[in-house]
Structure formats: structure tokens, C-alpha cells
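tmp note - BioF2-like acetyltransferase domain-containing protein
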Amino acid sequence: MKVVIYDDLDEWCAITQSLGRQSVLNSSKFIKINCETFNLKPFLSIIFNDKVPILGSILYQKANQIIQPNEYFYTAIWLNSKSDLIIQEGILYWISLLTQKFNRIEFNLPPNIKDIRAFYWSGFKADVYYTYISDLSQDLNFNSKVNNIINKSKKYDIKFEANNSISEEILQYHYKSFISLGYSSIYSEKMVEFIAKLFDVNFCYSMNAKYTVNDELICSSIILLDDSSLIANNFLVTSNKTSYHTGVHSAIYAENYYYLKSHGYLSFDLCGANTKGISNFKRQFKGELTPFYRVKFNSWRWKAVLTKRKFDSFVKTLRKKMK
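out:
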């Protein structure tokens, strides 16, 4: 095994593209937006096995730490081998590199990485999270309760509009939502800046719901589009609590399903199903419940674990000798 660390983002992206592993999350534009907005540096690496690239990753570095810039997206990691054993050895080699260079590490694994034993063996902790992923190549078949709510929403004369650009009104609408969720004003401003930049490079569209009679905005969603894999990610959905009775929150999900299917997308990731209320709501759209992992490493904790293991082994050996 051999690892190459890249300073040239374009070179890393060119190799990735040559292998057919490109995605919105590992595109140079997305990476630059993340780094510029959150003041991060990309850490680019590829693991080679006999000159064949088998694992590539883009992580985000701040000082001597690897951090997850926000909770909404997975880390850009691709795998390029049919051998589970080679992939496992590649991940172990990659992890060894990371733990030697960084004191703290935290990032979301993409759902396709299901075997995380290599991380446990290397001193990482892992938290399991869930999402629902819908196959848009199949006929849409929502829960009957959702269909009833959608039909109910039609009585309130609500109009839905899909937009490839984003207005200041929509940005401020989501900013207020971040604040209401308990995020700091600084983080909320950064997230709004991040969203605006994604729209500037055509990575997102918004679906917005307004009352026809007075043009009042009552719900807005932002969808991240991956045109390489034809996967869409349900980035944000915000709605007025005073409008819940209209069913607009369910209706806007349905509108996104219709829009994405009509535009040829193959998969829709609803991005999060961890709390009971949100999980039960998203379950009604009949996607597949899918786990993913957030892995964490702390070098000081791991050193303490290894020290304790050595001490316990020493005590065990000493007791045997004393018998």
C-alpha cells in the first residue's frame, strides 16, 4: 500500500474523474466553497495498491484537527476495488495516516461504507445515524396518510415554485430557522453564505410554498443536486408553525419528489431520520431506512486506552509469575 497526499485539488479531482467516481461532494467547486466559507483547508489523499488507486478522500482540516464542517452532508470518500479485503487494508492504511497526523478527527462516512470495524480497531468511536433514501426509478407510492394531507393542503390555495436561484427573502427565512434551532448567529450567517454560494454554481434548487392570495412564504426547502450520480439530497426544509395545519410540510416533500422524478434523478436522500418525530414523518414517503456513521478519534483518549492495556497485560503476566 502507498498513500499520496495532494496539494493540487485539480490533480486529485482529475484522478477521481478518470475513475468515474466524481460527485458533487468531491467537486472542486464544492470543496472550495466549504473551505472559503468555514475557513478550512482540504486534506486530499489517495491510497494505492500496486499502483491502482483504491481509496480517495477529501477531509476538512482546521489546525491539527479533521472536522465535519456541518452535519448535513457526508464526507467525500470513494472506493475502487471489488475485494473486501483490499478495501479493508486500504482503510486501515488510510486511518493510520490520519491518526499519525491529527489529534482529533470527526467526519460522517457515506452510507455505502457499512463495515466500520477498521475504525474500531484503530481507536475510533462511532455513532450510528439514519436516513431514508428513496428510489426514484420506481413509482412513487406514499403512505395513505401523506396522500390525505397533500389533498388537504390543496384546499388552502397554496402555490409551489421551484427555483434555481435564491432570493434574500428565502435566505433570511432559513437564517431564522437556524437561529430558532439554537445555532449561533455566526454559524447561521455562515450557513446562509454557504447556501448562497451553492446556488451561485447551480448545485441547488429551492422549492417554495406561498399562499396565492397574499404571496406569504410559508415553507421552503433546499435540495442539493448531484448531476454525476443523479442523487438529490434534502438539505433543508423550513416551514411556519402557524401553517402546519395546512399540510404544507408534507406537500412540499411530495412536490420535491415529483420535481426530481420528472427531471431524471434516480435517488432522493431525505438526510436524517434520527429523532422519533422526524423519522416517523419521513417514513411515510416509503424510502429505505439506511444507517450511516459518524466516526471520531481523540489521540489522548486512545493513548490512555493503549497505556491501560499495557498495564493490564503487565499485571496479568506478573500474577502468573507469582503463582
